[in-house]
Amino acid sequence: MTITFKKAGEAAASRIMKSAKSGMKASAAAIEPTKEVKPPRAVSKEEAPHMIPARESTKTTMMPWKGWVDRFLKDRMSPGQYNTWRNTWYFWPEDPYNLHQMPSPATKIPVSADGKEAGFREVSPGSQPPVDIPLHDLDDDPYDSGYFKRDTRRRYVDPEFPHPEVEQLKLDMQDPNDPEVQAAKEKLAAGPKSSPGNGLRFATGPSNFDPTGLRAVMAVTNAEIQKKLDKHMPDHVSTGSSI
């Protein structure tokens, strides 16, 4: 019964997606940008669907009123008077960004040791070729974003499964005939009892897309996740460590 409902839902979803795609294609064909914004300028809401964005950003500021006090005093003072006033009232007079978090289009700053300068967005993003996104390998799942399989930093934080090698050494140094030691060894060998996995049986029915169960948190077992974490464990010496 569950599988029948699942197939019916998949069929309905497929029809809805096809209908949505056809609607999007029709709307895109109805509003095709025809006019390029040259030179760059602000466009109205009515113009926006028919405009092709400019490939380069504007070279002039859109806030010409900014800095008018500084320009006014510079025109009416001698260079010495102006520099004295500027060094007195400015927090950082020689700041190349003029204390702005985002520089203006006319601002140019050194970008190399030989004195070469470049402005903000000197090369406009719109003038660049399309981004070349590398493809996944054939065995990779592009939709698999599970971090728990690579979370080696918190691997031993779980108090139920803390450093099994260390716990084994502790037990080996104790009396092997002690019943409590024997029980502790059996418990350590059995591993944690939490997260046994659902056996690939979900609310929508059984699944076989990943026999290891690592594709979904509900299906993963402690044994499989420990194997996966072993592959991702770091093998380098950290900066703070000493040999």
Q: How confident is the prediction overall: mean pLDDT? A: 76
The helix tally amounts to 6
Please outline the major beta sheet: 2 strands, parallel
Strand fraction band?
Answer: 5-15%
Secondary-structure-derived class: mainly alpha
Number of strands: 6
Q: Estimate the helix proportion, in percent.
A: 25-40%
Write down the Rg: 33 Å
Low-confidence stretches: none
How are the strands ordered across the major sheet? 1-2
Global shape: flat
Question: Between the first and last Cα atoms, what is the distance in angstroms?
Answer: 62 Å
Secondary-structure element order, N to C: HEEHHEEHHEEH
Structural commentary:
It is a single chain. This protein has 243 residues and is mainly α. The chain has a domain at 164-232. The protein is 33% helix and 6% strand. It contains 6 helices and 6 strands; from the N terminus they run H-E-E-H-H-E-E-H-H-E-E-H. The chain has helices at 2-30, 68-76, 79-89, 164-172, 179-190, 222-232; strands at 35-36, 51-52, 108-110, 117-119, 201-202, 205-206. Strands 1-2 form a two-stranded parallel ribbon. A hairpin with a 2-residue loop joins strand 5 (201-202) and strand 6. Helix 4 (164-172) runs antiparallel to helix 5 (179-190). The mean pLDDT is 76.
